[in-house]
Amino acid sequence: MKRVLMIVVVLVLAVSAAPKKPYDPSLPVLGTTFHALPAGTGRRLVEASCLPCHSPDILVQQRLTEKQWTATVDKMIRWGAVMKDSDKPAAIVYLSKNFGVTNTFTPAKTRPVGY
């Protein structure tokens, strides 16, 4: 037990003594929300079902086919997302149209919180 504690202390000291990488203070902080979902049929369904757990930025960066969006929506429903079966087709069409394989999203550089 003492040995494990000593190893943990040494590791903590080593990590805290490591030089911190400077980050550009003009960059937004990690976790900043940059996007709103685009207008269109299905937007409100996606907002109601996806945004309670995810930022719009998670959706915006996807490039999934309709088949992949179908599997993703089904998975999210199994994991607790609330969506009626009758609403799934409209949500999948919206996601596929806006965040499909032709999506041209470019990620933004960010800095960690605290820098």
What features would you describe in this structure?
The chain has 115 residues and is mostly helical. The protein has a domain at 27-98: Orthogonal Bundle (Cytochrome Bc1 Complex, Chain D, domain 2), CATH 1.10.760.10. The protein has helices spanning 2-17, 43-50, 56-60, 66-78, 88-98. Helix 4 crosses helix 5. The longest helix is centred in the first third of the chain and has 16 residues, at 2-17. It starts with a helix and ends in a 17-residue tail after the last helix. The model has no long low-confidence stretch (mean pLDDT 85).
Short characterization:
By secondary structure, the protein is mainly α.
Q: Any low-confidence stretches, pLDDT <50, length ≥5?
A: none
| Annotated CATH architecture of the domain at 27-98 | Orthogonal Bundle
What is the CATH superfamily classification of the domain at 27-98? Cytochrome c-like domain
Per DSSP, the total helix count is: 5
The strand count comes to: 0
Q: Whole-Å distance between the termini?
A: 36 Å
Tell me, rounded to a whole number, the average pLDDT: 85
Order of helices and strands: HHHHH
> DSSP strand (E) fraction?
under 5%
Gyration radius, rounded: 20 Å
| Largest beta-sheet characterization | none
Give the helix proportion (percent range): 40-55%
> Outline, from the CA principal axes?
elongated
CATH class of the domain at 27-98: Mainly Alpha
**In the CATH scheme, what's the topology name of the domain at 27-98?**
Cytochrome Bc1 Complex, Chain D, domain 2
Structural class label? mainly alpha
